[in-house]
Amino acid sequence: WVPFVLASLALLKPGGRLGFTTAAKEKPHDVERLRERALAALGLAHRAEAAIGIPHKVSSDEVRDLFTGAGYRVRQVLLRTIVDHPQSTDDVHVANLSSSFGNSLSGLSESERKQLRTFIDTELEQLRDAEGIRVERHLIFAVAEKPQVS
Predict the structure, then answer these.
(1) CA 39 vs CA 7, 12, 48, 77, 133: distances in Å
(2) Which among 61, 65, 39 has a CA at the least distance from the CA of 52?
(3) Which of 7, 23, 54, 143 lies 20 to 30 A from 47 at CA?
(4) Angle at 34 between CA 31 and CA 35, to 5 degrees
(5) Is the dihedral of CA 106, 111, 116, 117 positive or negative?
(6) Could you tell me the end-to-end alpha-carbon distance of the chain, in angstroms, rounded to an integer?
(7) Cβ atoms 133, 124 nearer than 8 A
(8) Average of pLDDT values for 124-139?
(9) 41: closest CA among 122, 133, 134?
(10) What is the per-residue DSSP string for the chain?
(11) Contact 111, 42 (CB under 8 A)
């Protein structure tokens, strides 16, 4: 996604702003941590393609470096936690699959995916509260501004 951001910055007029959100490398989502634990528990952690959650994550510092390295003024780089309350484990899996462009766990066999899902579903149910299954996502909200021409 870095080339896209750099190309977008190049297209801005002086004083123009670019903003985006992205998953935070420094603080994985709850579902990512559950997947990593499940893969380890099932002896599948060595399967790198299965362990990948959201690809191409960056840290807040990397976002700042990207902006300043391109000559832009950093207006905002905030790490925010979003709390979701899906009603079912199916809802969690659907959201995870859509955020991974349908590639989530594609490197595992059907049997391995079923084992993993059973493990994750058990863990997710332990996060259930009165509103649903409480899961946190950690996102970077970033805005940069192209300097005015002197």
Answers:
(1) 37, 43, 10, 32, 21
(2) 39
(3) 23
(4) 85
(5) positive
(6) 30
(7) yes
(8) 96
(9) 122
(10) -HHHHHHHHHHPPTT-EEEEEEEBTTS--HHHHHHHHHHHHTT-TT-HHHH--SSS-B-HHHHHHHHHHTTPEEEEEEEEEEEE--SSHHHHHHHHHHHTTT-TTTTS-HHHHHHHHHHHHHHHHTTEETTEE-EEEEEEEEEEEPPPP-
(11) no
Place of tokens 């996102």: 139
pLDDT the model gives residue 3: 61
Other Cβ atoms less than 10 A from the Cβ of 11: the count is 10
pTM recorded for the entire structure: 0.78
Residue matched to tokens 């805005």: 143
**Max Cα-Cα span within the chain:** 62
CB 39 within 8 A of CB 51: yes
Q: Which residues pair with 83 in a beta bridge?
A: 136
- Answer with the residue of higher pLDDT: 108 or 119: 119
Is residue 132 packed enough to be buried (19+ CB in 10 Å), middle (13-18) or exposed (0-12)?
middle
Q: Which residues of 66-105 are buried (b: 16+ CB within 10 A; e: fewer)?
A: bbeebebeeeebeeeeeebebeebebbbeebeeeeeeebb
| Whole-angstrom distance, CA of residue 83 vs CA of residue 91 | 14
